[in-house]
Design goal:
Radius of gyration: 22 Å
Helix content: 25-40%
CATH topology of the largest domain: Archaeosine Trna-guanine Transglycosylase, Chain: A, domain 4
Order of helices and strands: EHEEHHEEEHHHHHH
Strand order of the largest sheet: 2-5-4-3-1-6
Oligomer: single chain
Structural class: alpha+beta
CATH architecture of the largest domain: Roll
Distance between the termini: 42 Å
Largest sheet: 6 strands, mixed
CATH class of the largest domain: Mainly Beta
CATH superfamily of the largest domain: Hypothetical protein
């Protein structure tokens, strides 16, 4: 996995506050996932600037952010010259230490920072650290609807046929949901009721299915 070291509080702003650009000294063609590494050095002037952007005082929370650690992952969607920023407006603008800037999307913070030294520029995580990042991301995600179905079926020792009959849904639909397909509201509700699933967890799961697996919505009750 690629990585980039960014001084706090800007790494925090990318992962938690919607900042979607980051200055870079050279152009890259890479697009894809990138680990956000909070550098060891802290940008105090940047902290004051961020506090002004947020219209709040400079708090201990901003001053005590984790450093020298992987703190999350985002997706690089492009790299552009800062002189072109008027064509691709970001509400965050650009810090003038380019001449290029990474364009970032889909920020995902880690539940806990993973301590590791950083490097200049774009670099590659070693296999052990990349594995730890992947495991931490997975552990921090809500289970999918398919995960919840399989867990409850295992706990109650129900076969697919038994659950489909008990809930009143077709076996074909149930197999699609177990494979990661997205149920319509009616089938989600009856399956959750049949398995006495927590509706709040079901709601969170349906909110994450589209990111975890190619989701498909049923068009009608089956």
């Amino acid at each position: 996995m690629k990585a980039v070291s960014i001084r706090q509080p800007w790494a925090h702003a990318i992962l938690h506050l919607g900042r979607d650009v980051e200055p870079l000294g050279y152009h890259i063609s890479y697009q894809g996932p990138i680990a956000i590494h909070a550098a060891e050095l802290y940008d105090m002037n940047g902290a004051r600037q961020l506090a002004t952007i947020l219209n709040q005082p400079l708090t201990d929370e901003l001053l005590e952010l984790p450093r020298n650690a992987i703190v999350g992952v985002a997706t690089v969607t492009g790299c552009r010259a800062i002189s072109d920023r008027a064509k691709h407006r970001s509400p965050w603008g650009a810090r003038e230490d380019g001449p290029y800037q990474l364009v970032l999307a889909d920020p995902e913070p880690l539940p806990d920072p993973i301590a590791t030294p950083g490097r200049l520029g774009i670099w590659t995580l070693d296999d052990a650290t990349a594995g730890a990042v992947a495991a931490a991301l997975e552990a921090g995600r809500d289970p999918s609807f398919a995960d919840l179905l399989r867990a409850e079926m295992g706990r109650r020792v129900l076969t697919r046929e038994e659950l489909a009959d008990h809930a009143g849904v077709s076996l074909r639909s149930l197999d699609r949901y177990l494979a990661g397909g997205r149920p319509n509201a009616h089938n989600a509700r009856v399956l959750a009721g049949a398995l006495e699933m927590d509706l709040e967890r079901v709601g969170r799961a349906l909110g994450t299915d589209g990111r975890r697996t190619p989701a498909r919505a049923d068009g009608a009750h089956e």
